[in-house]
Write a structure and sequence with these properties.
The chain is mainly alpha-helical and 934 residues long. It is built from 45 helices and 13 strands. This is SIR2 family protein.
């Protein structure tokens, strides 16, 4: 690498570490000269002073100024100098470039106001310092120091006395500047070799330590003696020329100013210190831009795009992406850099050449250029399977350099299942950072929020100690996620313990990072601050709208073209695995959940023009993880059985189906059973997994496994109404869509589990609600459909024996639900046991309540007893309270169903008038909705 490039790298590194100070001399101010307004050169000013003093011989400038002051006095002295420095001179593009570089300290020996004007116009945050008092009151780390004062403060430094008394007049500023030389890399701009101000500055650095940061002077001509002189004072000269720095696009500036601007721009864009003809330097150029991403377990496309710049992606149907490096004539982007694109072109030439190598030649090349292997390994973390190569043929086919450091899409799917199977992951690692991150995340997933907070706090300290900023940023974000769960916990103890714990202001913490780390982690911060997540959610919404129009057009007989059909799949996998592998606790944030749901909606909508919608494992995971039960029910409604010939089917690969059934469902069942908290977060996930499986055409083996998990869950105390309803829907859809014949033994095993929960007195409120309100009716129905017969009379005896201990009202409810359902699928022996129990319930003394008479009507309807006219009078008496229209009861609906059945199916005319009145009462209630309902 050229030695000057090494120096440029040092300057850039110092700036990234907030350790760059720029001295600005008179040459920079000259860049603001126009045809109408210009700043004087030293010779202009000295000529006037000499003329006024009638001096012809050469004098030291400082002495000349001193004589002028003594001869004409302070007022004339100040007026003469000030007229050369008008306040309304506009900053040049060079001034703006200096500010764009954003050095920590800008120091000037100039008296003009050009830099102040630029700072104000461009909105940069620098404290202006012209006096010691200004320095004392300065609070910003960014300082603009006018070490020679200015006219506003009447403290300009020019005459001999000013320099002799500088230490007395500006003691704090002098010491501060001296400290800058000890702590900052210094860059001198706008100074000539013979600049008097430079010579005075050199006096401050005569004792410059050899271990102090380097100093550089920018100049435009080679002068070996002068360079040696400066080198003796610790200053390295950087000579700029138009061969090394392009100034074609900076023609509005004179040559020296243009070269200086081009030089500074190359530092800002990080694209100068590379020899395009040096193979290793070109590869290193790419590596240096992305090497910081190695700290992460997974990388987003945005991180790659932001680090490399001037690049994009192509997407393949296997879920992997291909990196496209733009050349100078390629796609225009907001980060366009001609130099960067030229280096991209050189890098692609190297890859094209390697692509033609034999395997043994490739091996030798990689041994010589091991850094290329590192580049490919980092790209693999973003699921990038290759780099687009230049293609001269007209086929339109994309040719790409294969990334040999990435596994196949199938192998990646297998590896990723560790993170999307709802299972515990191993926390063991010799790496303290990885171990703490994993322990905190696993504790969070299992609801152990106090432990998660403890481990995350340890992680934050470890990251700060080792200066691992990317993981630190994630840990700070996670702190808020954990705190939210603790502060809004149902545990009063937890709420009290953490209510005073301050949440992290992520933006404030991020901007405390070193400048170089801010730049490196900008894409990560955008993700964690939800900025890029919101952006992606909006893109998904737009894509859904566009897809809806396209699908409508296709169904109407039109056609639609989409060049980026695979982009949502690739982006979904990338963002999902990025969060999971890096242990980012973002799963509860609304915009992220919305984006993940949209990544499921998009493939369903896109494939809805076909007969089948095939989802991959990542889409199944997102459907399980990020949907509420109702949302997923609505989403899956397109797959419900219809009479239309265009029945839409949900599909999955055999491997994916096996994974859901043999891994995901058992894991969710385990979590549901093991989690004894009041609000089990795994309930919805279990329900969602079952609802998805309901629409898949499963094999008998898979059905058996699913039913086994149902039985295991029902036997536990973790059942809910939702889980029962999901199981009920599963049975309905499997029958309606596929006419599935489930083995009788499997179905009866589940029924026995339900019965045993009641007889063992382990059934809780949700169990009873599900049984009594029909949430498992399809289980009985399925047994009937497959011609199954329930024969376990001993189990039924135990059941009715337990029910005999219940209150009469509960006996009636169980008779109408569970017992009658079993009755309909049983042999004669079991039926007799059930019939005897129900007849006993019927014969119990009446409490004269409506529930008694409703049960009486039900008994008649199902044939357990004959109709008695006494029921008509009792029902007529009950209806009296509703006839004035001021009251209504939902029980009228069930009564209406029974009376209608008795009239239509049993031919009982005695109840026809009551049936008609019930219809009238219900209809009147619908027309007058403001009346109360009991």
């Amino acid at each position: 690498m050229h030695t000057q490039n090494v120096h440029i790298k040092n300057i850039k590194q110092a700036n990234e570490n907030d350790r760059l100070a720029i001295f600005v001399g008179a040459g920079i101010s000259k860049s603001s000269d126009t045809d109408y307004i210009g700043l004087p050169s030293w010779s202009d000013l000295i000529t006037e002073l000499k003329s006024d003093l009638s001096i012809t011989e050469e004098l030291d400038y400082l002495k000349l100024a001193q004589l002028y002051y003594l001869e004409f006095g302070g007022q004339t002295y100040n007026q003469t100098l000030k007229k050369y420095f008008p306040e309304d001179i506009n900053p040049s593009s060079l001034h703006r470039t200096i500010l764009e570089l954003s050095p920590r300290v800008i120091i000037t020996t100039n008296w003009d106001c050009i830099i102040e004007n630029a700072i104000e116009q461009e909105g940069y945050l620098y404290d202006k310092i012209c006096t010691d008092k200004d320095l004392v009151s300065s609070t910003s780390p960014n300082k603009f120091i006018k070490i020679h004062g200015d006219f506003k403060n009447h403290n300009i430094v020019f005459k001999e006395d000013d320099y002799l008394n500088y230490s007395r007049n500006f003691p704090l500023i002098e010491n501060y500047i001296k400290s800058i030389f000890s702590t900052h890399t210094v860059l001198f701009l706008g100074y000539s070799y013979n600049d008097i101000n430079l010579k005075h500055i050199l006096k401050w650095i005569q004792s410059h330590s050899s271990s102090a940061p380097p100093m550089y002077l920018v100049n435009f001509k080679i002068d070996k003696p002068q360079e040696s002189y400066l080198r003796n004072h610790g200053i390295t000269t950087l000579v700029l020329d138009s061969e090394s720095y392009s100034i074609e696009k900076i023609s509005h500036l004179e040559k020296r100013s243009a070269l200086t601007q081009s030089f500074l721009t190359s530092i800002i864009q990080d694209d100068r210190a590379v020899d395009p003809d040096d193979e290793q330097e070109v590869i290193s150029f790419i590596y240096e831009r992305i090497k910081h991403l190695k700290q992460l377990n997974s990388i987003t496309h945005n991180q790659i795009r932001g680090a490399i710049t001037n690049c994009g992606f192509r997407y393949d149907d296997d879920g992997l992406s291909i990196l496209e490096l733009f050349n100078p004539q390629g796609v225009l982007t907001t980060d366009y850099s001609d130099t960067t694109r030229t280096l991209h072109e050189k890098f692609l030439e190297i890859l094209s050449r390697i692509d033609l190598f034999r395997e043994d030649e490739k091996e030798k090349f990689y041994l010589r250029n091991s850094i290329l292997t590192d580049v490919l390994s980092i790209l693999a973390l973003a699921n990038i399977k290759g780099v687009v190569l230049p293609n001269d043929n007209d086929s339109g086919k994309i040719m790409y350099f294969v990334n040999e450091k990435i596994d196949s899409a199938k192998d990646l799917e297998k590896q990723d299942r560790e993170h999307i199977s709802f299972s515990a992951c191993e926390c063991k690692s010799n790496d303290l950072i990885k171990s703490l991150s994993s322990e905190s995340y696993e504790s969070y997933k299992y609801g152990k929020y106090e432990l998660a907070f403890k481990k995350n706090s340890e992680l934050i300290l470890a990251c700060k100690r080792h200066r691992i900023y990317s993981i630190l940023l994630i840990a700070l974000f996670n702190k808020n996620s954990i705190l939210w769960m603790l502060k809004y916990s149902f545990s009063t103890e937890q709420r009290n313990e953490f209510e005073k714990e301050m949440e992290v202001e992520l933006q404030d913490e991020f901007f405390k990072f070193p400048r170089s780390e801010i730049k490196k982690n900008q894409a990560l911060y955008d993700f964690l601050s939800l900025h890029s997540v919101h952006q992606k959610a909006n893109e998904c919404t737009k894509k859904l709208l566009d897809l809806t129009k396209a699908v409508k057009s296709i169904k109407a007989g039109g056609i639609s073209f989409n060049n980026s059909a695979d982009e949502p799949t690739c982006t979904h996998i990338n963002l999902l695995m990025f969060a999971l592998k890096n242990h980012i606790m973002i799963d509860q944030y609304a915009p992220y959940k919305a984006a993940m749901r949209d990544f499921v909606k998009i493939p369903i909508l896109r494939q809805s023009v076909k007969e089948r919608v095939k989802l991959n494992q990542y889409e199944f995971y997102s459907a399980i993880q990020f949907y509420s039960s109702k949302e997923l029910q609505s989403e899956l409604s397109v797959f419900i059985k219809n009479e239309d010939s265009n029945q839409l089917r949900l599909d999955a690969s055999d491997e994916c189906s096996e994974w859901i059934i043999s891994t995901v469902l058992p894991n969710l069942t385990d979590r549901l059973i093991q989690d004894r908290s009041l609000f089990n977060s795994h309930e919805t996930k279990f329900e969602n997994s079952v609802r998805l499986l309901a629409f898949l055409n499963l094999s008998d083996t898979h059905i058996s496994k699913v039913m086994s998990e149902f039985s295991r869950l029902i036997a536990s105390r973790s059942t809910t109404i939702g889980t029962y309803e999901a199981i009920n829907e599963f049975l309905a859809h499997q029958h309606n869509l596929f006419e599935r014949e489930i083995e009788t033994d499997v179905l009866i095993k589940i029924l026995n589990t339900v019965i045993d929960k009641i007889t063992s007195q382990t059934a809780h409120g949700w169990d009873q609600h599900a049984i009594l309100n029909g949430s498992i009716n399809n289980l009985y129905g399925y047994i009937g459909v497959v011609k199954g017969e329930y024969t376990d009379k001993d189990r039924v005896r135990r059941l009715v024996s337990e029910l005999e201990t219940y209150e009469p009202e509960e006996q009636r409810r169980f008779s109408r639900s569970l017992l009658y359902s079993i009755f309909n699928i049983s042999n004669d022996n079991v039926r007799n046991i059930i019939k005897e129990f129900i007849e006993g319930v019927i014969s119990q003394p009446k409490t004269k309540g409506i529930d008694d008479w409703e049960f009486e009507l039900w008994s008649v309807a199902v044939g357990f007893k004959d109709f008695e006219t006494e029921a008509v009078a009792k029902l007529d008496e009950y209806l009296e309270q509703f006839r004035d229209g001021k009251k209504f009861s939902s029980q009228l609906y069930s009564l209406k169903s029974l009376t209608q059945y008795l009239v239509d199916k049993k031919g009982i005319d005695a109840i026809e008038e009551l049936n008609k009145e019930l219809s009238d009462l219900i209809e009147r209630h619908r027309d007058r909705p403001n009346f109360s309902s009991i």
